[in-house]
Amino acid sequence: PAVIKRINPDIVEQTRSYNLITPLFGGGVETGKADPITVVRGTEVRGHLRFWWRATCGGAFDGDLKKMKAREDEIWGAAAQKGKPVVSQVKLSTVIISRGRKFVPINKKGQRLTNRQGQPVDDIGDPNSMDSYAAFPLRDKPGAKVIEDVEFDLHISYPKKFEADIMAALWAWETFGGIGARTRRGFGALACTQVNGEILPKLSQQQVSQAIQDGLAKHT
Description:
Layout: E1 11-20, E2 24-25, H1 42-57, H2 65-76, E3 91-98, E4 101-102, H3 132-135, E5 146-148, E6 151-159, H4 163-176, E7 190-195, E8 198-199, H5 205-219
Antiparallel strand pairs: 1-6, 1-7, 2-5, 3-6, 4-5, 7-8
Helix pairs in contact: 1-4, 4-5
């Protein structure tokens, strides 16, 4: 007889689809480099979500850091304490849809960036790069690789009792965070395009502003 998989009503499962709308820098196991196989790693996403959980939910404990840490460990897990590790209640994994491609810098005229001899320049931080306003620190990182057009799915499941916490972290990560390094400098910005196969509508600038205000009121 066929084995029937029962759906646990106490567990929420989601598949969320993402495109990167700005270049990705770093994010791999080696600092400053993207992972050549798994461009977006589940452990990396978990770390970002844990950070944004603190940013959105950390104020709910009246300044009691012990209570906040206990709640954080209960949801996201903790390293072994006296031989008793706390297992994370959030299970997640990523599926890479597109590993992206090498980012090609352009100049302020929209043309391929070149040096005075007309040779291609791959340094996004070059002063003549259109993106140098955000990427100038990378000039001090020889060989820094930046990629674009990355797409991935995030499979995530968690107990329903933690839904408000998880949705707050996801909202903040998607709205203000990103993937890889320098996410608070414009790199690796996310666009969530689908949730469980449902295509999300694109918002106008005014709608985005209102959505941020609504999100702050709901999740913080």
